[in-house]
Amino acid sequence: MTKFTFTEKKDTRSGFGAGLHELGKQNENVVALCADLTGSLKMDAFKKDFPERFFQIGIAEANMMGIAAGMTIGGKIPFTGTFANFSTGRVYDQIRQSIAYSNKNVKICASHAGVTLGEDGATHQILEDIGMMRMLPGMTVIVPCDYNQTKAATLALVKHVGPAYLRFGRPSWPIFTSDRPFTIGKADKMIEGKDVSIFACGHLVWHAIEAEEILSAQGINAEIINIHTIKPLDVPAILESVQKTKCAVTCEEHQINGGLGDSVAQVLSRFFPAPLEMVAVNDSFGESGSPTQLLKKYGLGPDNIVAAAKKAIQRRK
Amino acid sequence: MSNQPDFVQLKKLATQIRRDIVRMVHACQSGHPGGSLGCTEYFVALYFHLLKHNSKFNMDGQGEDLFFLSNGHISPVWYATLARSGYFDVKELTTFRQINSRLQGHPATHEHLPGIRIASGSLGQGLSVAIGAAQTKKLNKDNQLVFVLMGDGEQQEGQVWEAAMYAPHNKVDNLIATIDYNGQQIDGPVDKILSLLDLKAKWESFGWIVNEFEGNKIEEVIKALDHAKSLTGKGKPVMNLMKTVMGFGVDYMMGSHKWHGVAPNDEELKKALDQLEETIGDY
Q1: Does the first or last residue of chain B, that is N or C, have fewer Cβ atoms within 10 Å of its Cβ?
Q2: Chain B contact present for A255, CB below 8 A
């Protein structure tokens, strides 16, 4: 059986920065826009090496989305960078009209998503962005789980034509996906199992792997599937797993409303009704604290996943 | 385009496009005649004199001048102008605002209507889009220009001022923006709803070259836009404050915010068409 371990930790935003820099070398149509958060988004390397293709917008996110949409006319591929909160909620109408409805090839790259942003508190900890973005027709939504996968997703986006939302985060996090292939829209079955399907995205994929070890020690054989692409959702992969296990758990650093849990629930209720438990933030805002404290307080830890898995198995009977 | 405009022909086009506008809006009993009629000379001047453009539409528009309409509700004048310029058959104007049409209430790329490069309708976004397109032209070493039209009521949107700050700072000098300054918005005169005070001083203080002109005289519009064009490439973006009369050309609509978004009835249509001679031929 596959065992996942890690020897190094890095923030996922650095994976974005490394991917963007690589794209700068690969493709001269790639341009980067930033709303006064170049360091936080790890866009410095791109800025340094490709200054003529880096656009400092200032603290004006609505303008940034409009400029990005306009830049696609003439063949540029804009990557916008700011915090997830300012990448979505603040500019929803600009994204909706100028990018999504207009089908512009803009890549909205969003850092500091979720409670793991930490001490800045709830004003900055957006937990609704996956829901907002996946509701937009034609929008691709990707939530990678570690540094490697965030870099791979950034590189994959340049070949993917159409609007996309890439969500990543601030904290240093285990790197465990070395050498795993990444394809937009194709779920990654990381651990095979037969008793319960655990679907996770973003930082919580690692917690799901930790939970699997605990469950395994108790004789429960969990299947761990990384749903890095929330939209388009890999429906066959979800159904294939749940048809085997007959119950499921979703794990995400997001509101219980609108995110991965809702996405999987929709699939199951339409095609294969089965018990589903959701590990997510339960309809509340976050608060200040360390990432570790917040993940624990808001019920997003490995223990929460273990409990949810047991409950799902119990409900199946 | 020729630098010696045929004003007789351009005036005929303007009159015909005004007929198209009132007929389109009447046929579906919805849409925005007031601003459309007020901006007719501007559209005629752009598409039949100023713009280097190709009616064989290409989204990227490289080597062409680009136009963006930010106040998307005046779609009737744009659609009529595009059709009269050969982007699509004038007969398609009958489908305006109807089900399964490419001529959506507000302009959209979604239905692939030739001539439209971005959706607009939710106000305040077009200037940002035009700036982005202008910066791409610079990256592509494309010397053609980008034009954008906004409404005066639209100046109340915050995003406009984000864009206003950005363009001069970044020397976006291949951009000619215009504000349809008719002084009216849906709920009443702009000065009563939320005053713009000295709009010229505002734009100048943001670092733009600002011109003012009368927007309902084709000779004036062409002169002003030619002048604006001569001011590009000098390190600053150009802003035109174009004074127009809402509803121009139809006496009972002129100067009143009441005709911002109301369609004429049968009797009112006849009254309007009596004032607008059929010149090129109705669709």
Answers
A1: N
A2: no
